[in-house]
Specification:
239 residues; alpha/beta; TIM Barrel; eight-stranded parallel beta sheet; 9 helices; 8 strands; 43% helix; binds pyridoxal-5'-phosphate
């Protein structure tokens, strides 16, 4: 099988696994649909094009420059998601390129995005990354700081909060992610219920190759899958 066909086949497998996980839901309405983001960092544009040809409509990248380079070839027919940490000096470019920024993790960053979006005459859709597991190695807002950042975001005219993103710790037994995903879903529901009508809370971005099925069972409606679609990343290529 060619590499391109392989990518198409794997996408079908991931989609089938997502649908199966959706029907296993116990705490979450099964009918809530799930969108698949193909995470393409460190993969070449040829692989991305194969994924797009196989029906992928959402692309996830974690570095701004890499996305800008690839977008020159691929254009904007797909939705671009920034899933990696965003440095304030890259905000201007990020706002130009990305439809949804998943990784807002500080007040300062939220304010910078708002300023850049205003200059572009754009309202930037964002998710706040929550570090519910309190891992020091990861970015994301701690639970006790969340209310303040949400209140500030609500006052910023050129960013629109659309939900939350989280990354689960890399547990040896993937089942250990479940309570965290469940707590994230509860938080998502709570904020949605109390959000001002200017907000548009709709996305809960959680789940990667090793844990997306559990994430979907627990209420994720955006999953970010790289390895299961494209295989291992080739960091040596330096793309
Ligand atoms: C790389 C990455 C993913 C995809 O990881 P895989 O294990 O390859 O599926 C998802 N989310 C974030 C934030 C990432 O950086």
């Amino acid at each position: 099988m060619s590499d391109d066909m392989m990518i198409g086949t794997r996408i079908q497998e991931v989609r089938a696994a997502i649908e199966a996980a959706r029907t296993r839901r116990t705490h979450v309405p099964a009918e809530t649909p799930v969108e698949l983001i193909a995470v393409t960092k460190n993969h070449p544009v040829e692989a991305m094009q194969a994924a797009i040809d196989a029906g992928i409509m959402n692309i996830g990248e974690n570095r701004v420059q890499e996305a800008l380079d690839k977008a020159q070839t691929l254009g904007r027919a797909v939705k671009w998601h920034l899933i990696g940490h965003l440095q304030t000096n890259k905000v201007k470019h990020a706002v130009r390129q990305f439809d949804l920024i998943h990784s807002v993790d500080s007040l300062r960053l939220a304010r910078e995005i708002d300023k850049a979006a205003e200059k572009l005459g754009k309202v930037q859709n964002i998710l706040v990354q929550v570090n519910l597991a309190r891992e020091e190695s990861k970015s994301g807002v701690y639970r006790e700081d969340l209310d303040e950042i949400l209140a500030v975001i609500d006052e910023l005219p050129s960013i629109r909060l659309q939900g939350f993103m989280c990354i689960a710790p890399n547990y040896e037994d993937v089942e250990e992610c479940r309570p965290l995903f469940r707590a994230m879903y509860e938080l998502f529901q709570q904020v949605k219920a109390h959000a001002p009508h200017t907000a548009d809370i709709r996305y809960l971005s959680m789940g990667m190759t090793h844990d997306y099925e559990i994430a979907v069972e627990e209420g994720a409606n955006l999953v970010r899958v790289g390895t299961a679609i494209f295989g291992a990343r080739q960091y040596a290529l330096g793309v």
